[in-house]
Design goal:
The complex is a heterodimer of chains A (133) and B (146). Chain A is mainly beta and 133 residues long. Chain A contains no helices and eleven strands. In chain A, 32% of the residues are buried. Chain B has a single domain, classed as Sandwich (Immunoglobulin-like), CATH 2.60.40. In chain B, strand 7 and strand 8 form a beta hairpin. Classes of the chains: A mainly beta (133), B mainly beta (146). Strand 2 of chain A pairs antiparallel with strand 3 of chain B.
Chain lengths: 133, 146
């Protein structure tokens, strides 16, 4: 298997549903600035999901990955997880669900995925800011 | 592990493609969020049959980042089969809030008619000042086995 691992989409949303027929629905896709109501810290969101669609995986049977969220330079600590991939399909969807999502306060955060597909490695990141409205 | 950015088409200059998706519908919600209904992967499976493939609605969303400071965007969106354009929108000019990094581009066809099963491409051509950028998302339309 050759070629690039391609990021096709990386979106934060309030919830998601997997539908009959193989599609999925992203509810409340957020931009890079998330405004929350005024109140004391920490900031608690009932649910936050990162959906990452990666392409270029035709022929791959296994993907290894680690998803993380951080403030500042904290290194991701969790181990890589393995997931089967249908080698007939090009894309794979990764979902990182935080329920609840707790942030210590306003600031800039980064959420991302480290990916290993055979000998290919890639990291994709999405930076976003949380502000109080 | 030595991470890379994965793919050059994700970051080209300062304008970044954050998402490019095909779905059944796009809804803009009160509060500024967007809901994407029935997101497809690169294969759209439709019912068995003959003749053109008609979907009640097909929508396309692209999220572009790196636009802080930009006040105006010119863009064009289209779907094509090889060299034939099935749908094409004229070059459009849209205001962008310069305080925002991201801009969402959405368009939909209702109904969406594909002349046959095959590989199609949805595209977004962007002009931001003197920068030009083209983004492509190929997808296959296939009939399920009878």
């Amino acid at each position: 298997m050759r070629g690039l691992v391609k990021l096709k989409a990386m979106l934060l949303c309030e919830d998601l549903r997997f539908e009959l027929g193989g599609t999925f629905t992203l509810i409340g896709v957020l931009g890079e600035r998330i405004a929350v109501s005024a109140g004391p810290d920490p900031i608690v969101m009932p649910k936050l999901a990162l959906v990452t669609v990666v392409g270029g995986l035709r022929g791959a049977e296994l993907v290894r990955f680690r998803q993380w969220i951080r403030a500042g330079d904290d290194a991701p600590a969790n181990e890589l997880t393995s997931e089967a991939h249908d080698p007939a399909t090009d894309e794979h969807n990764f979902v990182f669900l935080l329920s609840p999502a707790v942030f210590p306060g306003e600031g800039t955060y980064e959420i991302g995925i480290d990916l290993e597909v055979g000998e290919r490695q890639a990291t994709f990141r999405y930076a976003f800011a949380i502000t109080r409205g | 592990m030595s991470p890379s950015t994965g793919d050059a088409w994700y970051v080209l200059g300062l304008v970044k493609l954050k998402a490019m998706l095909v779905c059944e519908d796009v809804r803009f919600e009160v509060g500024g969020t967007v809901t994407l209904v029935g997101v497809f992967n690169e294969r759209l499976l439709v019912e068995p049959g003959e003749g053109p493939i008609v979907l009640p609605r097909l929508a396309f969303l692209a999220v572009i980042g790196g636009l802080r400071g930009v006040e105006q965007i010119r863009f064009r969106q289209w779907i094509r089969l090889e060299d034939t354009e099935l749908t094409a929108r004229p070059l459009t000019i849209e205001a962008h809030d310069p305080a925002q990094d991201e801009h969402n581009f959405a368009f939909s066809e209702s109904p969406m008619v594909f002349p046959e099963a095959g590989t199609y491409e949805v595209a977004l051509d962007l002009e931001i000042g003197d920068r030009r950028q083209a983004y492509r998302y190929p997808f296959r339309v296939e009939r399920r086995a009878a």
